[in-house]
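Notes from the pairing session

We agreed to fold both candidates in a single pass and log them together. This is the raw record for the first candidate, unedited. Please don't reformat it; downstream parsing expects exactly this layout.

Candidate A
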Amino acid sequence: MQQRDSYNARSVGEKKTVISNGKGLRVSLYEIETNAHIMIGWADSDDDAREIAGEHYPEEEVVRITKRPRDIWVISKSMLGVQGASEPCDVARDCLSRARGDKLHAIRLYMLDTGVDLHEAQRAIETNMSLGW
């Protein structure tokens, strides 16, 4: 079982968060790719990362697992075409969650929930996907 522990960094005196496995051992950040999704998650090992994918997307095949070299995951907003400041939309995130990451289904749900047209729903869903729903 993973848990969050806090510790104080001595060099700068700021508080940082570390994910540990409850045994005091730090876990790693993994990139887990299935045939339809790319997930980022903390895991003790490749096997644990595969298990995470199976819990969330049991019908999908894991095609790649990569242990990240750093403790952060960085996505370039310019590479995704996101310009300016964007705020996550709770409705869009809820639709993505209910659609289990299926973009087209999430767009339909967003249209039903908000009454907006296809173009606005697509923009809202895609923007929130780029923000890491």
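Candidate B (folded immediately after A)
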Amino acid sequence: MRKGERMSDESDFDLMLARARGDESPPPGFLARVAAAGAAIQPAPEAVTAAIAQPRPASGFWAEIARAIGGWRGAGGLVTATLAGAWIGLADPGGLLMAAASAGTVELMPGTGDMFGTGDGAEAGG
């Protein structure tokens, strides 16, 4: 069947599916050539080296504390949080709250009372 041709009936479709399902194995030497090409590309194994002794982790009170909080990354996070808390505590954000309270109410849509007849403006039809 060529591209663009329409199938005449179900038998053409069944024939095409049967061809697709066919058990066509590759030629016998093909798989051997593919395996040989793969083996040629693979790097050769390196010589086995003696195991390098890992340095023993430091023991002691401060080493245990550092390990418990996550090493230098955890200690850095704790120091940052501590300094941020001290800064916020010393900066006294109470002044910000007083400034916000003294502003009173904020009208987000000024003039809408006039539009609905409930505001300070003159009543319609009056």
